[in-house]
Structures are given as C-alpha cells and as structure tokens.
Amino acid sequence: MSYNSWLECVRGCGRRYSIYDVVYRCEDCGGLLNVEHDLEALKTRSAPDWKKLFEQRARSNEWPYGSGVWGKKEWVCPQVDDENIVSMYEGHSNCFWAERLGKEIGVPDLWIKLCGNSHTGSFKDLGMTVLVSVVKQMVADGKPIRAVACASTGDTSAALAAYAAAAGLLSVILLPKGKVSTAQLVQPIANGAQVLSLDTDFDGCMRIVQQLTEDKTLYLANSMNALRMEGQKTVGIEIVQQFDWEVPDWIVIPVGNLGNVSAIGNGLLMMKELGLIDKLPRLACAQAARANPLYLSYQTGFEEYKPVAAQKTLASAIQIGDPVSYERAVKALKKFDGIVDQATEDELANAAARADRTGMYCCPHTGVALAVLFKMVERGEIKTSDRVVVISTAHGLKFTGFKVGYHDGTLEAVEARYPNPPLELPADIDAVSAAIDQAIR
C-alpha cells in the first residue's frame, strides 16, 4: 500500500503543499501548516493490525523501525527513503510510575513520561529526527539547502545540532545570550554547529531566524515548521501503547512555544480516527507565570490573545512570550476539553524538589507541570481514580544550576521547602554517627 502525507493550512482554507516545499505558512491566508495524511489509505489496514505492527517493531534492530518515531513511519513521514532517515533510535522513553508521589497527593495512578531520556536529553529529538530526515531527502533530490537554522532556549538547539551533524548538514543556532544553561549551550558547540549568542530573548531570536530563513537555502527547524510536530506526536501514541492501548484520563504538558500540545493532540486524534482508541484524554497545559500568554488567553475563553514580554524564569526553555504555535494549541485544547494553568517560581521549584524526594530528578519545566497537577488535584479537577500522565520534557542533568541553587537557598523568589544541603562535619566518627542518628529519627 502506498501512503502519502502533505502540508495543509490549519485555518481550513484548503491550500496544500508538498512536505518537500520550503514553506512554513500558508501563502494565501498566512496560517500555520499541519502535516496531513491519507487516512483512507491508512484505514485499509485494521486497527488490530496496526497495533500488532507497532508492537513487532518496538525496539527491533530492523532499520529504521526500532525507533519510537520511525516504528510508526506510515503515520509520520511515509515518503522519506529509509537510507535518508537520520535516527538515533529516539522514543520508547520510560513511563515512570510515580508511586510515592502519587500516594502523597492522592492520585495513585500517576505516571511521568520521561521524554528527556533521549540522545540529547529532551523530547525535541522526536521532532528533529523527522525534520532532518526530510532535509536530507531534499538535499539528495537536489534542493539547494545550505544549512538548517533555529532559534532556541536550549533543547531545540541541542537536538538540531546532533541530528544535523549525523546527517552531514550545517546547523545554525541562535541563542539568547545568558539565558540558557551551560549544559544546553555546550551541546550544539560540541556537535559543530554555528552558534550565535544574541543580546536578546528567545522571541527576539525567533524574529531574526524567521527573517534569515526567508532565504530558501536556509531551512527553518523551529516548531513553526510542521514537520517537527510529526515526530513529537508519537509521544501520545507511545503513552497509549505503553498502557496496553488504554487511554489515560489526563495528560499534563509544560508548554512554551506550544508545539508539543498540538503535536500530542494530533497523534491521539489520528489513533481515534483509525480506530485504535475509542476515547480521548483531557489535556492540561502548564505555563510559567512569568511567561504565560496562553494562560491569559485561556482566561478569556481564547477570545483574546496578546503576546507578553516573557520575564526571567527558572523554566528557561519555556520563557517565551509570543509562541508561534498558539493557533495550533488552541485548536487542540478545544478538541480535548483542555485547561491551562500557571505556576510561580516558588511553586515550580518546590514541586520539582518534592518529586525529587520520591526518586525523580526533574527539570524545572517538569516542575511547572507538577505544580499545576498539584493545583488540579486540590481543586478536585483530577480525581483519585484518574490515571494521569505528566510529560517530563528534559533530563534534570541539563539544569544542575537550578538544583544547586534550590538546595543552597539562592534561587530568586523561591522559599525552599525541601532543602537538603550537604552537612559539613569534622572527620570524626562520633560526629558522623550523631548526624546519622539525627537523620534516622
């Protein structure tokens, strides 16, 4: 069976493009684009057969199907030749049963989808494998792509640099100076990217990269590009697969540029359309209170939207005041009866620290999602009987400064309620024994 996908305007004007066209907005109405699939062709295979196929491919050594993304190639990007796929066997990240934390908050069926357990340490790998593979196919077919470029708060740059390096492509990275962690800064440097540190914030970097990529030989890799959504949509599919094809009640997602919520929604909607599931979860979007344009719009029933000047937040990867995927996100939230809430610096830092005390190691963005989760439980929106999955977007080791600052008590606007600094003692057995006895009591 031959499967097909294309780019189509999200506003419903009907304009279509090839996935190999260098275009990011509808040239008729200015709307963003989504990747759409020939669902009628996909329906020629039954839902049980799709499940069986996906299960057979999971973690296999057959290229490229062992990848959590490319194991669903027909649903993601069927046209790319296998030899042009650039994959690091991304996906299949652990869905961690947060048993202790769940019992503490009264939601025993609580799970954390550890998307940061990946090659570059964030969920961005899932989208970048698709985008870079398409670019490699375009280059193989003779398109004059000189480089792939992105603006980033850290994780996107790491993913682009790694996948572009594996593909033999030049990557150009625009970062806001002084606003990404050292670990995030060094990743694209190590992978040979052209890194430009600009004296602005992410939104300023995004404006410049959009101007740069008006040159069609420089290809845009931000989530404004619909191809990124295709890889990221497999998160929702993978969650359901990990629960033996049962749908959770809630998925809680930390959001910044708002691509991930629409991507996860697209994957779940596709599953329902093709008969693999018969219901949808509810979605909850969590924003940092210092960068909260979606939350403010939600307060008006999405009748109004105004970009904000994003303030400095510990959740630096979502310090975005003018998210490019706002339009996509609102559509997804309406289809999933979604809600939006926010977390202060104090709330997100303490939520992450509380989770860490139960065996996790949370990035600050996961802390935002957990803080919103705690509020939803307190309000009764999430019930004791609900199965809840929180999306953890990045590995905590990327944010060591955040962890150190918390336990040192030096984070601005944070009153640490779970500090655990090292206890300095003389090299004396009595002093050591006394300290241990005190801790055990």
Give a structural overview:
This protein has 441 residues and is α/β, with parallel strands linked by helices. It has a domain at 95-121 and 229-408: 3-Layer(aba) Sandwich (Rossmann fold), CATH 3.40.50.1100. Helix content is 39%, strand content 14%. The chain has helices at residues 39-42, 47-57, 73-76, 99-105, 124-140, 155-167, 182-190, 202-212, 226-232, 234-242, 259-273, 293-298, 326-335, 345-356, 364-379, 400-408, 429-440; strands spanning 5-9, 16-17, 33-37, 95-97, 110-114, 147-151, 171-176, 194-198, 218-220, 250-254, 282-288, 339-343, 388-392. It has a 6-stranded mixed sheet with strand order 4-5-13-10-11-12, with helices on both faces. It has a 4-stranded parallel sheet with strand order 8-7-6-9, with helices on both faces. Strands 2-1-3 form a 3-stranded antiparallel sheet. Helix 11 (259-273) packs across helix 13. The chain is globular, with a radius of gyration of 22 Å. The chain starts with a strand and ends with a helix.
